[in-house]
Amino acid sequence: MFSDWPSELVPQQGWGDEAAISAFKDAIPWTVGRDFVAGTAKHLAGSLGLTKPGPPIKSKIVHDKQLQVLMPALGHGLSFPLSEIDILRDCVSVYCEWLSALLPNPKSSVPGPILSDPNHYARIIINHFYYLFVPRGAQGPDVINRQAVLCHRVLRTLQNIAQNSPCLSEDTWQTLLLFLLHINSALLSPPTIKEDAGEQLCERVLSVLFETWLLACARCFPPPPLWNALRESCQRWRHRVGLIDQWNRINFALTRKLIGFMYGPSFPEITISAEDDLNIIPTNMSRDCIAQVWYRILHIIGNPVDLSRHTVISKTPAFLKYAISSALVIEPSQHPCLQMLPSIFLSAMKGVSGLVDAFLGVPNTSLDNLNQKGRQISPSSSFSLSAECRGEDAARLLANGRPKCNSILHLFGPWLFEAALINCNLQASPGPQHKSDVGSNAGSGSRRPVSVFAGEGSRKSSDSSAPGDSHADRLANLTPQHFQSGRAEALGALCRIFCSKKTGEEILPVYLARFYIALHQGLRQSDPSVSASHHESGHSSSSRSHGIRNGICSETAASILVNGVDLFRLDLQGVVSLVPSVLGVLECVLPEGELNAPSHLPVTLLRRAATHVLLSILPLPLHFQGLQVKEVGSNSGERLALSHLRPQLVNLLTSALQVETDPANTQMLLGGLLFCVQDAALCEVMDSISQHNFSTDRDHNIMSSGASDTVSSHGDYNSLDESCEVLSDGSLGQVGSSNFSSAATSHATLTSATDGEVLPVLEDSDSAHALFVRAIYLVCHRLISSWKSDVNVSLAGLELLSGLARLSIAEQDGLECKRAVKWLCDYIAYQCSRPPRAHSKDLHSTIVAAFHCASVWLVAHPYLLQDKECLATVLEVVELGISGSKSQVKSSDAPRLKHEKELKPASMRVRDSAEALLSCVLSQVGTFPSVCGAESLSSLLDEMTLLRHCNTWGGSDQLTRDTAAQHFRYFVAQNSIMLALLEQPLGNHQDPQPTVTALIRGPFGRVAWTMQLRHLPRHKSSAKLYTVNPGRPLPTNDVGIKHNVKPKYFPESVERIPLCKADKSIPTLESVIMNDEKSALEHDKLLQILDHQIAFEESVRRQVERETSEYPDVETECVAPPLCLEFQTARLLLSHFGFLSLDALQESVESAVPSLVALDSSMAGFARDLDVLDTTNNRTVDTAHIFYVRAGQSAPQDIMSNVVSSSSVHPHFLEFLNGLGWTVNVYQHPGWTGLTSTAFTVTSPPYDGTGPVDVNHGGSGFSGRSHVLYWSDALSEIAFVVPSPTFGQPSPGHQPSSTNNINTVGFVLDQCDRVGGGGTGGGSGSERSDSLPPYDGDVETGSSISSHTSQISYGHGNENKNRKFGRQTSAMSCNDHKVFLVWLESFDDCYTFPANELLCETVTGLESSSWKDKEANVYIIYIHALTNGLFRIKLQGQNAKLNMAGPLVDGQVVSRRVLGTLVRQTALNMCRRRRLESDSYQPPHVRRKLRIQEMVQKYRYEMNEPEFYTHLFTSPLC
């Protein structure tokens, strides 16, 4: 910059007023001159008032001529040896006091001439001070300390004058700066010697120089010659550690100011902890001046990479002078002080790296970080690799307004690229086999490759070398291997620059080419010691073997991995050419259990970085199947097909999973493993589709199919070609377009460019079936052996097994599936058998997850239950979960019966999950999906539907739920099963059999059964047992003799017995009638009645006699009795099932509720509660909301408007939506719709919303107004809603509510319950949420679901009679979380996504009443489409304990074919983990059971046994 300007740094002999002082010394002898100087200095110092008490004496020096005599004497005194320390002290004291003339308040002892012209005399004094700083040669430490004390006083005085003097002239400023340059040159230019003055004063003189220089820049900007002098001087001092420290210090202070006014206050600023450093920049320095000074100071030491070249650093006159005068040093480059160059170089690279972080906006960039040992990882990299980087508190790792990569590379690129390629051999390799030239002589002209896998031993030896070492030892300590730390720092800075690339940002091809070469060189070379041993033994390594698998990772490779985790996640052109190089290093890091990493870098962090890189390159082989790459730096014609690396990647993944011990790393590897299996399975399916749909003579990519990855499989090949052409000299091979296609045959093949060998794309070892088997064995084995004690790893492993269960693989082995279920059962048994002190909430969460995983396996593979051994294993573990023990521990043991065991499950959560598995085995395995479809596990028939099909229903009256319930008898059995019995035959059956229709509502759903009492099997009941005309029987004349016998009631002798007085004591009837007129009237009436009855009986007798006397009569026909059309079938059903016994109708010790109770359906609210029960789903329900964010958007309305038209979204966005689930109409869909007002019911839409979805929509067709995306299995449901703006139609969150809006958690959003009681209009979804019923104080807030359920199920006396059942407020907390799926056009928009502002658009009705008052838990899955057809994933959420759900991993790159599946599984697992974490979560079947028990308490008939039996014979309303 200033090479054309002359330097003002004159030789030392001409500095310091040499002429005047020499004249004084020559005029008088030494002794006389000493005495004169001593006396003069002592006299003048005594008048200053420093040594004696009292005020200073006014100076008697009044003429300039007096000063012309005294000042040369004082200057001569400053050059005295250190033995004359008193004279030196007095001279310093006098001059320091006289310099106060430049201050606003000068001392009274200052001579008058100096006060008159302070700048002139100040320049003389400053010149004289130079002699004080001149080194005196070898002195003892005490003597040097005395000199240092005086020097510090002078520096303080000069610094005070520079800061506070109002009258410094331009000449004085230049003199002061030249003085500082000269004293620094005098002290720092010579080679460093132990305990010399330069070593002790280095830091102080440099800090004063730079601080004073900054003051001069603000007040009197130095001219170019001075800048040139500073640059030349600093380049002579580069062997001093203090120079680089001060250079970094000043650079950071200036950069902090520069960034502040360039990028504004929102840009992260550099953290400076020292108070002095905060004020080092003058406040009055203008912005232009700061920019000028920053750039000049940055380049003041020249090229920092020269610090790695000892021959350049030692090419100074001072080193040459030392080499000439020293007998131990032959050449200047052999001085012992140069052994500090590796640490100095590292410090300089840390400074440059810190400046890079500052411009990138890395938070917490500070000077203190530079002082950390071996800093090769920036705060951004360490934070991004932390396991907890998921919450919004993670903020952004890089500033949004950061400069472009090209701008930063323009500033620091030349230094960083040169430092990254220190002593690298950039000549292309002659062939596939090469050897490292490690045996060449260091003195030869050939350049030695730099060690990548260098150990610590040689570095320690270099630091401990003494100056007296031999020439060979000193030379060995300065080999390039010892500059690897600085080189690694430069590589790390380069990686961070390129990883900061924004979406759509272009990086110059020349920078990309240099970057790839630097990375290749940093990854490829081997340890010299190892390579030498191989060389001696005659072995050579392949050009793609980038390291020895000895568990040793070099600093450069570690720095690249840690700082370059995003390399393959960005749209860097041609980055796939680095895959072979990176893969070689990953094989040195991941499969090794005992990894020898750099001491400053934690092994866990290094392995996590390697895992991130591995996950980002896993999809490349199958995605770029036809792509062949040439290794960087290779001169051979060999090209490597990426598809051939897939077996190596899979083996690396499984090997890493076997040795990994860190929980976070293990979960990431598990996510990658599931992705590999699913990707391979879908790839094979698409291959078969391609083979079927396309002819072999047509060029087409192997991934092409009607629903395949047609576009993404090709990728951006044009840009890749352009990137490859950038690397000249054959460093990266050209990729022709002809290599991108292959014949679509059943076994796609690729031809090698060298030998024409045909190899299959998918090897047997990495086929979907092989990966499926390996994954099952590995995960199950590790679950039982080492992962069982870690809850997060266990949950991740179980989630992976659940994902494997749902895979559809053609060659699936039933034996492997059986083993998987067996291992799951063993895992549950082991966890349950752990000692009581080990039982915790986390342990039980793993058991619950294992039961769920077993259910998934059995539903997906129902044939497993056909195996007796598998069925027995499953039922045993179900028994263990419900009862707490097995009936038969060993096969040889006698089984214990149920009543003999004590019911002690591990926890109620475990018992509930075991019951869910049992219900799944009995009702879902082999039958899912049912005839009702996957949308509903329960029957769609209800009371109203059945009654409409009943024979007795006329259809004229308006049928409501209340009237329909009156026709049914309601009973509850076992306090958990509700029976609704209809005793009327349905209209679709004309056979008058005893028929009962039962709606059975239980914890696991609703089913409808029609039962008939038949005496014959159904296939034989078609033959009637009677005929319409059976025929007349033949008369029989022999009918016997009829005897007319009149019975007698008294014996005949009774009338012959005489009467006695006692017989006459009762008056006769005649006497009574005659004496009483009223009695006579009553007697007459009675006689009339008797006469009438006698006449009637006589007529009947005559009729009977006539009929009997005429028998047999040929005209009398035999008529069959009429059929019985009315049966009390409800009583028959209950009786047949044993519910009508006296024991069943009585309360027992175990339960306060009898086994069978009757419900009163006529009570108010019964039908309403029945609706609540029906809409309490028997599966978990979740909702995910999807948003599309265009580049630069952050306003909620803009984001929601993107999905209106398909032209405003990415072409793959709609395909992604279709991969999440299938389309359902919310008004015709019986399952979950994402909103409680339309869920679980089939209704008529308020507007014409039954038509198909508009084909031109961009996702708004799934807004929930008419359609949503839906997916379900036997255990869970999830709705995917795409919120969009409203255009004249009510939004799903703002539909009018009614009394039928029922929450699946069990509460009713009734307008009658609103505050004020008068709300009748349609409120918004948020209003419905705010109107939830208040929390019931009788239920403990902290009580768990299990204990609550246990008390209800088994009872504890009469306290349950007054217990209030229903939803607990704490149970709603797990429904307050939200899951967002956000599609990003620009990845940086994830940091400005307005998640909180969009919460109002995601109301489902399941939220608790206080969810708005607290911070919502929002889990976000960001999806960013790369230009190569792959997708980058970012996960964001609260830092909860169990929220690291898989299979997607933060930062993972996935293919298009598995995107929808993996996103759906991750969303479901996020919700599932949230429920596991909640203390008050109630499983669906438990909530349904509680609803039934609540209805028992409210609507139960209070009857004893006779009354109950009487109630059975009473017919319901007809």
Q: Can you tag this structure with a few keywords?
A:
single chain; 1518 residues; alpha+beta; eight-stranded mixed β-sheet; five-stranded antiparallel β-sheet
Can you put this structure into words, describing what you see?
The protein has 1518 residues and is an alpha+beta fold. Helix 8 (170-188) runs parallel beside helix 10 and helix 33 runs parallel beside helix 35. The strands form 5 sheets. It has an 8-stranded mixed beta sheet with strand order 13-14-15-12-16-17-18-19. A 5-stranded antiparallel beta sheet has the order 10-9-8-7-11. A two-stranded antiparallel sheet has the order 1-2. It contains 52 helices and 19 strands. It starts with 17 loop residues before the first helix and ends in a 6-residue tail after the last helix.
Main sheet? 8 strands, mixed
Taking all Cα atoms into account, the compactness measure Rg is 48 Å
Average predicted local confidence, pLDDT: 77
Distance from first to last alpha carbon: 106 Å
How many beta-strand runs? 19
Name the strands of the widest sheet in spatial order.
13-14-15-12-16-17-18-19
Strand content: 5-15%
Shape: elongated
Counted by DSSP, the helix tally is 52
Low-pLDDT runs: 10-14, 387-395, 429-472, 526-549, 694-763, 1293-1372
Helix content: 40-55%
Find the structural class using helix and strand composition: alpha+beta
Chain-wise SSE layout:
Elements: H1 18-27, H2 30-46, H3 64-78, H4 85-98, H5 112-116, H6 118-133, H7 141-164, H8 170-188, H9 197-219, H10 224-236, H11 241-263, H12 275-278, H13 287-298, H14 310-313, H15 317-325, H16 341-360, H17 367-370, H18 379-384, H19 405-420, E1 433-434, H20 457-463, H21 471-476, H22 484-499, H23 509-524, H24 528-536, E2 541-542, H25 555-563, H26 579-589, H27 603-617, H28 620-623, E3 628-629, E4 640-641, H29 646-659, H30 663-693, H31 710-714, H32 717-726, E5 749-751, E6 758-760, H33 768-787, H34 791-805, H35 814-832, H36 841-860, H37 868-883, H38 908-923, H39 943-948, H40 961-965, E7 969-973, E8 977-982, E9 995-1002, E10 1005-1012, H41 1061-1064, H42 1069-1075, H43 1077-1109, H44 1129-1136, E11 1156-1159, H45 1166-1175, E12 1180-1189, H46 1196-1201, H47 1211-1220, E13 1222-1225, E14 1267-1272, E15 1276-1281, H48 1325-1330, H49 1345-1354, E16 1378-1384, E17 1418-1425, E18 1431-1436, E19 1453-1454, H50 1459-1477, H51 1484-1499, H52 1505-1512
Helix pairs in contact: 1-3, 2-3, 2-4, 3-4, 3-6, 4-6, 4-7, 6-7, 6-8, 7-9, 8-9, 8-10, 9-11, 11-13, 11-16, 16-19, 16-22, 19-22, 19-23, 22-23, 22-25, 23-32, 25-27, 26-27, 27-30, 29-30, 29-33, 30-33, 30-34, 33-34, 33-35, 34-36, 35-36, 35-37, 36-38, 37-38, 42-43, 45-51, 47-50
